[in-house]
Every structure is written in C-alpha cells, then in structure tokens.
C-alpha cells in the first residue's frame, strides 16, 4: 500500500475529502518526524511506539575492495508495534 492508497482509505473511513485526508496524513507524519528530531518518543497506545535509536561507530568492510572503513555513529528512527497491532496481524 502506498501513500495515495492510504489517503483513499482514510478519506473513505473518515468520510472526508481526499485533499483533507492528504493534509491530515502529511500533518501526522510531519508531527512524528519533528518529535523524533527533538529526541521525543511518540507512543500510540495499541498501535506502536516511534523512537530514535543510536548506532555506535563501528568498523566495516567495502564489499568491492575488502578495504576496512570506519562507519560513523548515527541516529536512526525505530518503530515497535503495539499489542493491538500485533494481534490484528496474526
């Protein structure tokens, strides 16, 4: 399912226009991105938790040359599914 399909489903489920659903989805994703950038965790009870995980610096290998390279420490977004979402999938 892609973004336009999600917008269609949201518009049908909430009985709103597709443009309103698109704005709502954009606001939702932007709000989560801003919260994560500020270091916050976003918890949606029953759905899941968005958070930021830190990866430590490490040594890797270039697969083409086999040369050793240093990989910098980084932050990456993470999602952990909630119980209701896990149960709905099973």
UniProtKB/TrEMBL annotation:
Histone-like DNA-binding protein which is capable of wrapping DNA to stabilize it, and thus to prevent its denaturation under extreme environmental conditions. GO terms for molecular function: DNA binding; identical protein binding; structural constituent of chromatin. Keywords: DNA condensation, DNA-binding. The keyword Cytoplasm does not apply. PANTHER family: DNA-BINDING PROTEIN HU, DNA-BINDING PROTEIN HU-BETA. It comes from Thiorhodococcus mannitoliphagus. It comes from the Bacteria. This is HU family DNA-binding protein. The lineage of its organism: Bacteria, Pseudomonadati, Pseudomonadota, Gammaproteobacteria, Chromatiales. CDD domains: HU (cd13831). Belongs to the bacterial histone-like protein family. InterPro entries: Hist_DNA-bd, Histone-like_DNA-bd_CS, IHF-like_DNA-bd_dom_sf. One of its GO terms (biological process) is DNA replication initiation. GO terms for cellular component: cytosol; DnaA-HU complex; HU-DNA complex. The keyword S-adenosyl-L-methionine does not apply.
């Amino acid at each position: 399912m892609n973004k336009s399909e999600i917008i269609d489903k949201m518009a049908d489920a909430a009985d709103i226009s597709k443009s309103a659903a698109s704005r709502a989805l954009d606001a939702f994703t932007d709000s989560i991105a801003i919260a994560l950038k500020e270091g916050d965790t976003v918890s949606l009870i029953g759905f899941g938790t968005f958070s930021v995980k830190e990866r430590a610096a490490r040594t890797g290998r270039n697969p083409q040359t086999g040369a050793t390279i240093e990989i910098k420490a980084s932050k990456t977004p993470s999602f952990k599914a909630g119980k209701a979402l896990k149960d709905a999938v099973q």
